[in-house]
Amino acid sequence: MYELIITNKAYSSWSLRVWMVLRHLRVPFTERLLPYHPGAFRSVTPSGNVPCLVDGDVTVWDTTAIIEYLAERHKGVWPEDARVRAWARCATAEMHSGFRALRNDCSMCVGVRIRRHQVSVALQADLARLAALWADGLARHGGPLLCGTQFTAADAFFAPVASRVETYGLPLPAAARAYVDRLLALDLMKEWVAAGIAETLRDPSHEEDIMSQGVLLEDLRARA
């Protein structure tokens, strides 16, 4: 049975991606949540980062490597059609390596609502690219998800973006916002968010970064 090593569900965008794919596949796995603190994962993952997947004597780290490892063993990670699959891999690779302003300016934190002080030019550019990328996928494949009617790794990779849009009230065109709402309405997303809200774990560095981005409007999380 797989073991998935993750950290705080309130903060961990990369953990969410792999967790959603595993749950979507309905394959058995155990979840090992290690509370975040500097250096927390050095003794359990080769890179010192999570998520990390353990499959017997095989350890797989980095989200994209984990996704491909699962895709070699299970149907449903990627679209069956080769052309759609190529698009999905391009979109996930772009998410993995890009959107730096979105990552830096909008740390993930479920259950919190922030009114940002400003939306920088770089963040505006990231949001415009997201809207264009999503519009392309939805138009090419017919929606309601990026590759058609079935949830794939491409949607999992953008699920944390949906959380960030909700947290910071980020401006998006109507079609892009509708896709965000569809991601947030997924049962798996609701389950993750509920677990993150229920956490009483807090990491001071994450909290400081999140609160520095704007004015706190609402904190739905359980008391620390």
Layout of helices and strands:
Blueprint: E1 2-6, H1 13-25, E2 29-33, E3 52-55, E4 58-61, H2 63-71, H3 82-97, H4 100-105, E5 112-116, H5 121-141, H6 153-168, H7 174-185, H8 187-198, H9 204-211, E6 214-219
Parallel strand pairs: 1-2
Antiparallel strand pairs: 1-3, 3-4, 5-6
Helix pairs in contact: 1-2, 1-6, 3-6, 6-7
Structural class: alpha+beta
Q: How many separate structural domains?
A: 2
Kindly state the percentage of residues in helix: 40-55%
CATH-assigned fold name of the largest domain: Glutathione S-transferase Yfyf (Class Pi), Chain A, domain 2
Record the strand order, biggest sheet.
Answer: 2-1-3-4
| End-to-end distance | 33 Å
Residue windows where pLDDT falls under 50 for at least 5 positions: none
Can you offer a commentary on this structure?
This protein is an alpha+beta fold. The protein folds into 2 domains: 2-71, 3-Layer(aba) Sandwich (Glutaredoxin), CATH 3.40.30.10; 82-193, Glutathione S-transferase Yfyf (Class Pi), Chain A, domain 2 (Up-down Bundle). Helices cover 50% and strands 13% of the residues. It has helices at 13-25, 63-71, 82-97, 100-105, 121-141, 153-168, 174-185, 187-198, 204-211, and strands spanning 2-6, 29-33, 52-55, 58-61, 112-116, 214-219. Strands 2-1-3-4 form a 4-stranded mixed sheet, with helices on one face. The chain has a two-stranded antiparallel ribbon with strand order 5-6. The radius of gyration is 17 Å and the shape is globular. The protein starts with a strand and ends in a 5-residue tail after the last strand.
